[in-house]
Amino acid sequence: MSMEDYDFLFKIVLIGNAGVGKTCLVRRFTQGLFPPGQGATIGVDFMIKTVEINGEKVKLQIWDTAGQERFRSITQSYYRSANALILTYDITCEESFRCLPEWLREIEQYASNKVITVLVGNKIDLAERREVSQQRAEEFSEAQDMYYLETSAKESDNVEKLFLDLACRLIREARQNTLVNSVSSPLPGEGKSISYLTCCNFN
Ligand SMILES: Nc1nc2c(ncn2[C@@H]2O[C@H](COP(=O)(O)OP(=O)(O)OP(=O)(O)O)[C@@H](O)[C@H]2O)c(=O)[nH]1
């Protein structure tokens, strides 16, 4: 694919315990479906989706990692070049929430210090089985300086919003970095509309 095919390219990596719904979130966003009987991811999977945000083509490379401990050394190698991480837990599984500090240590150790991390509580369609309150998750994410969103891959709740808000945020960061890194040279896309700022809810 030539450079002209997109204005921005971002790498997004999903991490979190096994079974929290990472693969289902990716499949919902990239293919618009909820796969029946989704098996555990082996190692790492990769999908691409190009979205258009205020007239600009944004190519998202989405890496879906295996949550199982035995794949940890493989998945760690994908953190380094990630622009964003989607750290996922399952709102019906206390254990997946309690493991978050462990995941944050992995991020600290293996990811770039510029990485944007979003905390996602998935499976909100199973509200009657909820084990982690929204307030508790919000407090945790605030303390860790992460964005927080609750989703349902099954019902398609907030899935588009998750990826599109993240893409908006990444565009904004990319522009800011360009500004810092090359103050005297013209910005890519300078003069274009900056209305994308209004679509981004991750502030
Ligand atoms: N009710 C409900 N079930 C979900 C949702 N998302 C995923 N699941 C189910 O949760 C199970 C695990 O989903 P996966 O997407 O394979 O989980 P994963 O995090 O990718 O798991 P690993 O690949 O092992 O790391 C499957 O049985 C899915 O059908 C959701 O939003 N709601």
Automatic annotation (TrEMBL):
Bilayer topology reads: Lipid-anchor
Q: What PROSITE patterns does the entry give?
A: RAB, RAS, RHO
Q: Which Pfam families match?
A: Ras
Q: Which reaction does it catalyse?
A: GTP + H2O = GDP + phosphate + H(+)
The EC code for this enzyme is: 3.6.5.2
Q: Which cofactor does it need?
A: Mg(2+)
Location(s), subcellular? Autolysosome membrane; Cytoplasmic vesicle, Autophagosome membrane; Golgi apparatus, cis-Golgi network membrane; Golgi apparatus, trans-Golgi network membrane
Recorded GO cellular component terms are: autolysosome membrane; autophagosome membrane; cytoplasmic vesicle; Golgi apparatus
| GO biological processes | Rab protein signal transduction
Q: What enzyme category does the UniProt record give?
A: hydrolase
Highest taxon of source = Eukaryota
Give the GO molecular function terms.
G protein activity; GTP binding; metal ion binding
User: Keywords assigned by UniProt?
Assistant: Cytoplasm, Cytoplasmic vesicle, Golgi apparatus, GTP-binding, Hydrolase, Lipoprotein, Lysosome, Magnesium, Membrane, Metal-binding, Methylation, Nucleotide-binding, Prenylation
| Its job | The small GTPases Rab are key regulators of intracellular membrane trafficking, from the formation of transport vesicles to their fusion with membranes. Rabs cycle between an inactive GDP-bound form and an active GTP-bound form that is able to recruit to membranes different sets of downstream effectors directly responsible for vesicle formation, movement, tethering and fusion. RAB30 is required for maintaining the structural integrity of the Golgi apparatus, possibly by mediating interactions with cytoplasmic scaffolding proteins.
By sequence similarity, the record places it as follows: Belongs to the small GTPase superfamily. Rab family.
PANTHER family the UniProt entry points to:
RAS-RELATED PROTEIN RAB
* Name of this protein: Ras-related protein Rab-30
**UniProt organism field:** Myotis myotis (Greater mouse-eared bat)
The root-end lineage is: Eukaryota, Metazoa, Chordata, Craniata, Vertebrata
